[in-house]
Automatic annotation (TrEMBL):
Keywords: Acyltransferase, Transferase. The keyword Transferase applies. Residues 6-409 form the Ketosynthase family 3 (KS3) domain. It comes from the Bacteria. This is Ketosynthase chain-length factor. It comes from Streptomyces macrosporus. Pfam families: ketoacyl-synt, Ketoacyl-synt_C. Belongs to the thiolase-like superfamily. Beta-ketoacyl-ACP synthases family. InterPro entries: Beta-ketoacyl_synthase (IPR000794), Ketoacyl_synth_C (IPR014031), Ketoacyl_synth_N (IPR014030), PKS_Beta-ketoAc_synthase_dom (IPR020841), Thiolase-like (IPR016039). The keyword Amino-acid biosynthesis does not apply.
C-alpha cells in the first residue's frame, strides 16, 4: 500500500500569560513596543537570595479563568497552563468540549514542575506532621501536571505527552504536536508553563553559573553585549493550538503559521556553554526538514543565554549554518524584556513569531542603551517593520539540549 503523505501542522490559536501581560493582546503590545517587565523580586522568602531580578507575573487571578476544583489541586505553573490553554482554544474558535474527544491531544514541556505547591506541603510536613500534608501533594508538583489537568478539564482523550527536555523542550513540544498531527491527530494543545520563583525553586537555580546576579533590572539581562552577565529567570505560560491543515480548513479556521521543520541535538552538559556545533547541526537539519534555504529566513529569534561564551557560540552556530546570510538576517531576542521562562521561553518566542508575521513587525531586543554589541549579528534593538514569511527559532537548555524550529507564515 502506498504511503500516505504527512499532514501539515498549522497554528490556529494562541494563549499567553507573561510578565507584564495577561493575555495575548497585552503580550504583543508590550513585546512590539519593547516595554520591559523585569523588576526586583518581591516574592516572600526570595528577597534575600543572590538573584534579585526576575520576570514576575502580577495581577493574574487564576480564579477568574479556572474552576475551584482544579485550583485546589494544582500549582501556579499549572494555573498558567490552564488559563493559556483556555485562551488558545478561544482564539482558535474551537469548542472546548469537542464532539470527538479522541481527536484532541495535549503536549506540554516543563523543567521544574510545581515548586511552590511542593514547598508549602513540605513545610507542613516538617512543622505539623504528615497528617497536615494535603492529598494533592502527590500530583501537583509533578512536571506532567499541566498536560494531565488540561486534558482532564477539556475532556481531551487523544494522545497526551510531556516533554522533559530542559529549556529546549518548549520547541520539542511543538514538534511533537506536529508529529501527532502528521500521524492522524486532528488537534493538539501544545506549549509550556513555568513558575520557578518560589524560594525552593530559586535556590535550586543558584547552581547555574549562567544565572545573572546583577541587581539593576535594566542591566541584568543583556545578551550579545558588553554588559552580558547571564540570564534572568521568569515565570510564564504559553499554549498554542496546533491543527492538521485539512482539519482547520474543514471548520473554516484560518491557519496562522505552518510548523515547517524542527531538529534537536544534545551537547554534553559539562560543555553546555559551548553549543556551537550542536546548535548549528540542529539549524541545518531543521532547514532541511522545512525544505528551506538559509536565505529564506527573514528573522531569527535567538536563544540569547546572556553569557559571553554562550552568546559567541550562538552567533558562530548561525554563521556555520546560514553562511553569509547570518550577518544580514535580522536577529531578535524579545525575552530580554521579560526574562527566560525556561521551557515556556521558546513557546513565547513561537507565539511572538506568529504575531510578528501577522503584524509585519520584528519586535526588539530590550538592552541597556549604553551597551556595545560583541557578536557579528544584525541585532534588532528597535521595532522594525518588515514582511516576515519564514522565522527561525532557537533554544538551548542549561544541561546540553539544543533545538531549532522553522515557522512559515500562511496568509
Amino acid at each position: 500500500m502506498a504511503e500516505q503523505p504527512a499532514r501539515a501542522a498549522v497554528i490556529t490559536g494562541l494563549g499567553v500569560v507573561a510578565p507584564g501581560a495577561i493575555g495575548t493582546e497585552a503580550f504583543w503590545k508590550n513585546t512590539a513596543d519593547g516595554r520591559p517587565a523585569l523588576d526586583r523580586i518581591t516574592r516572600s522568602g526570595c528577597t534575600h537570595l543572590p538573584v534579585t531580578v526576575a520576570g514576575q507575573i502580577d495581577g493574574f487571578d487564576p480564579a477568574a479563568t479556572i474552576e475551584e476544583t482544579f485550583l485546589v489541586q494544582t500549582d501556579r505553573f499549572t494555573h498558567f497552563a490552564l488559563a493559556a490553554a483556555a485562551w488558545a482554544l478561544e482564539d482558535a474558535r474551537l469548542d472546548p468540549a469537542p464532539a470527538s474527544p479522541y481527536t484532541v491531544g495535549v503536549v506540554t514541556a516543563a523543567g521544574s514542575g510545581g515548586g511552590e505547591f511542593g514547598q508549602r506541603e513540605l513545610q507542613q510536613l516538617w512543622s505539623a506532621g504528615p497528617r497536615h500534608v494535603g492529598p494533592y501533594q502527590s500530583i501537583a508538583w509533578f512536571y506532567a501536571a499541566a498536560t494531565g489537568q488540561i486534558s482532564i478539564r477539556g475532556g481531551f482523550k487523544g494522545p497526551c505527552a510531556v516533554v522533559a527536555g530542559d529549556e529546549a523542550g518548549g520547541l520539542d513540544a511543538l514538534a511533537h504536536a506536529a508529529r501527532l498531527v502528521a500521524h492522524g491527530t486532528d488537534t493538539v494543545l501544545a506549549g509550556a508553563a513555568e513558575a520557578p520563583l518560589a524560594p525552593y525553586s530559586l535556590v535550586c537555580q543558584l547552581g547555574y553559573p549562567e544565572l545573572s546576579t546583577t541587581a539593576d533590572p535594566a542591566r541584568a539581562y543583556a545578551p550579545f553585549t558588553t554588559a552580558a552577565t547571564g540570564y534572568v529567570p521568569a515565570e510564564a505560560g504559553a499554549m498554542l493550538v496546533v491543527e492538521a491543515a485539512e482539519t482547520a480548513a474543514r471548520r473554516g479556521a484560518a491557519p496562522r503559521a505552518l510548523l515547517a521543520g524542527h531538529a534537536a541535538t544534545f551537547t554534553a552538559p559539562h560543555r553546555r556553554a559551548d553549543s556551537r556545533a550542536g546548535l548549528a547541526h540542529a539549524i541545518r537539519t531543521a532547514l532541511t526538514a522545512a525544505a528551506c534555504a538559509p536565505q529564506d529566513i527573514d528573522v531569527v529569534f535567538a536563544d540569547a543565554l546572556g553569557t559571553p561564551t554562550a552568546d559567541r557560540a550562538e552567533a558562530a552556530a548561525l554563521a556555520d549554518a546560514l553562511g553569509p546570510h547570518a550577518a544580514e538576517v535580522p536577529v531578535t531576542a524579545p525575552k530580554t524584556g521579560i526574562g527566560r521562562a525556561y521551557c515556556a521561553a521558546p513557546v513565547l518566542d513561537a507565539a511572538t513569531a506568529v504575531l510578528a508575521m501577522e503584524h509585519r513587525l520584528i519586535p526588539p531586543t530590550v538592552l541597556p542603551p549604553d551597551t556595545t554589541p560583541t557578536c557579528d549579528l544584525n541585532l534588532i534593538t528597535t521595532p522594525r517593520p518588515a514582511p516576515i514569511h519564514t522565522a527561525l527559532l532557537l533554544s538551548r537548555g542549561l544541561m546540553g539540549t539544543n533545538a531549532a524550529l522553522v515557522l512559515r507564515h500562511t496568509p
